[in-house]
Each structure stands twice: as C-alpha cells, then as structure tokens.
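Notes on consecutive records. When two proteins share a document, each keeps its own sequence and its own token line. Never mix them. Below: protein one.
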Amino acid sequence: MPDYTYLIIGGGMTADAATAGIRDADPAGSIGLIGAEPHPPYNRPPLSKALWKGESEDTIWRTGAKTAAQLHLGRRVVSVDATGRRVTDDRGAVYGYRKLLLATGGSPRRLPLETEQIVYYRTLDDYRRLRPLATEPLRFAVIGGGFIGSEVAAALRLQGRDVVMLIPEAGVGARVFPADLSRFLVEYYGEKGVTMRVGEGMAGLERRAGKCVVRTTTGQELTAEVVVAGLGIQPSVELAEQAGLRVGNGIEVDEFCRSSHPDIYAAGDVASFHNPALDARIRVEHEDNANTMGKIAGQNMAGQSVRYTHLPFFYSDLFELGYEAVGDVDSRLETVADWKTPFREGVVYYLKDRRVRGVLLWNTWGQVDHARALIAEPGPFTSQALKGRLPA
C-alpha cells in the first residue's frame, strides 16, 4: 500500500496548485495524486477559448504535480476511510495518507439520453471529440446559454459551423448579466450567424434517423447531428458524504480550507467557503479560485496557517467581446451600468443594501483589483456615485 504524507484526490488545476503549496512549506514530504482522467493536470479554460483560436495543445499542460507528486491516473476513488486514513480506488488499490485533499471538482448535469452524439463539454477528451467534428458540415445544438454554452457556441461558429442555441431563459447569460445586456447578446450572436432560440427549454430528447431530436417546452422540435450540453455542474461531494464530512452547497471548509475533519481539506469547484468581503459562504467554479485556493490548501496541509480570504474573479470571450467579473454577479441584484459604449465597453455594478457586491468589467481590462477594493468598501453607494468610479 503506498503511504503518502499528502494525498490529493483530483487531477485538475486545483490539485496541481496544491502540490505547489505543499512544496512551498514542505520540500520533502511525499505527495500522491489520484486523477480520474488519463492525463496529468492541465489548464481547463483554453478548452473553450484559446485552443479554438489556433493555440497548440502543448500550451495547456501544467508542470507542478508532474514534478512534485506520484501520479495515479485513470483511477477513481470509491471510498475514504477517515479514521484509518486511507482511500480505495476503483481497481481495489489502497493508499494511506496523513493529510488528504479533496479536489474532486464537479460532474456535468446530464441529459435524458445516452448517445455518443451528446458532448458534455468539460475535459480535454471532450475537446478532442468535438474539435474534429467542427471540421465537418454538421449541425450543432448547444443546450444552455450560460458560461460554457455561450463560449462553445461562439467557438463552433468561428469554425463556420451551423450552430443553434436553445436557452430556457430570456437571453444569453441571463443569470449573470442585466436583462438589457443579455438581450443584446442574443442579437449579437444572431448577427454572428448563430440561430438563437430563447425562452425554450428542453422537454424531451430522442434519436431519430441518426440525428438527435430535441422536443422543446414550446412544443417544437430541434434537430442536430451533435448536441453540446452546457448545463453546468454538480459538485462531486459523494466521497465527502461517505466520509461523514459536512456538506452543503459543496464540501464546507473553514478559513484554512479544512473540512469538518481536521486531516481532510477541500478546495476548488467542490469547496464551499466563507468569503469575508461578501460576508457569505460561496462556491466558485473558475480558474482563479482553483489556483489560489488550491495553493493555500496545500500550504495549510503542510503545516502553515494561511487564511483563504481571496475573492476570485472569472473571465470569458464571446466572439470579439470579452469580460472579467468579480464578486456576486447575479442578475437578480440591483444593477448600475456605466457604459462608455453601450454593451461594447463599460462597467456594471451589482448592489445589495447599497453595497457593491459584484462588478462586471465588460471589455474593460486591468481593473479586477480595483473592483475587489470597491466590493470591500462598506458604502453606502448611490448610482450616481458609481458613475466613472472604474476604470480607476
């Protein structure tokens, strides 16, 4: 039985960052990493961004875990024995540990049909499946208008493909963007040649004559050779539940990324943590959180006491438009838009109780730290006071 000082379950960006954190604090302790994918850790954002614009796959690979840890790839952990400090994988192999990190991420929400024509877009292998298909004269149906759906639809359309988006909400990114910006994006995507079907959800899905046929909530049908599901993820908390850890919206951790068991930590997409600036428990599914929280979790596993107080940001590219966002960007909040050019360049502030809770930097760059500082201010803020506040 391999016995590690530090054992990491998960093979993504968070896991890789954790190995760097561990090595910062402990140059010698043994590290084991168990990953479900057959690949060593890689950067995930290029899968829906840079790789579609010609960047080589060679650029996505990370080096931390490959140099610092013993990798056990293509394996899934099936049980955690918190008392005995050991885990068992799907091949029956058992691993011992002193400190354990759960960096299990999440799994895509699935559609009610099993077929190779559906791509759940999350991994490198998903990209490798979809990329060759994008060279063929096929019709692609993208289900969902959120983060992944909007990026993949743009990527496919940039290859000249026939793309239709099925979005149950009233617009693109409707849960994040103000209603007028979300509606603008529907028009913008339409101008780019994407067929937009908004306000239509999926009522059923079947295969017919070699194609996928989606029945919509408006009683219509949508036919495509390939369906890309962009329905978000569910945090993979099954191992945490089995180990008796406290779980809410993800694995609940304290300010040191420690779960309800003192020797088990969690970080990344799967972890729910209290953020001081928002004074709320949040879970964040983006690169900045994976890298920063993963590293701090590793440092703390190795004996340091570094508080995770970081407020993560995320970013996206939508054809020629791009944005960065930080904090609670929820379209249900009060929003104040300060446009330099309407819907092309500007800043949107998200307010609750006259405090800024989130900032959307739309084609406005280099302002994330200023946005964080604004969110940390107690306010109160008026709409007028926010005009011209950023860029700083």
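Protein two starts on the next line and is unrelated to protein one.
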Amino acid sequence: MNYLIAFAIGGLFCAIGQVLIDYTKLTPARILVAYVVSGVILGAMGFYQKIADFAGAGATVPLTGFGNLLAKGVKKAVDEDGFLGIFTGGLTASAAGITAAIISGLIIALLFKPKMKR
C-alpha cells in the first residue's frame, strides 16, 4: 500500500506541473523553481513533513522534497550556528543529493558521447 500512496502523491505533483505547463504561460524552469520554493515554504511552516510522513518517497523525491530538505537544513544550522547557518544549512543538508547528481552526470557523460545542440 505504501508504494501505491507514494505513486499517487508523486503522480499528483507531476500532474500539477503538467497542467501548469499546458495551460499557463509559465516556463518549465519557473515551475521547477516554484516547486522548490513551495517545498521550502511548506517545510518552514511544518506542513511538508506531514505530507512526507504520509506519502514517503512520493513527497521526498520530487523537487518539493528538495525544498523541504533545504528548509530543514537551514533551520537546524540556524539553531546550531546562529546567523551563519542561513548560508550553510541548505547546502550541508543537501550535499549528498547534489554530489550524487554530479557524479551520476559525470558517469553518464563518460559512458556516452554528449553533443551540443545545434
């Protein structure tokens, strides 16, 4: 049942993004930024953790989950380091995910021959 809930909630996030692409003049980049910012806002207000507890990976994997992770990291760093935590907390909390994305991109680029778009 957990897989079904995660699939449904993650699919709902994707469906909302697709509707925004199809029926508004928002670019995909602006929608992605809106997802991250909404994750930060919902995480800072304490709502996103309830969604993540219910939906599991369906809520933590999308970009809203990344925004929530940034908010949690900043909050923790501010509690520990004060004002400086505003600048360090988000990157500290998301360092593993960012590193995994960079290394995965490097491996794919080495395995295949990327080409510039013409």
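For the record: The two ends are 46 Å apart (CA to CA).
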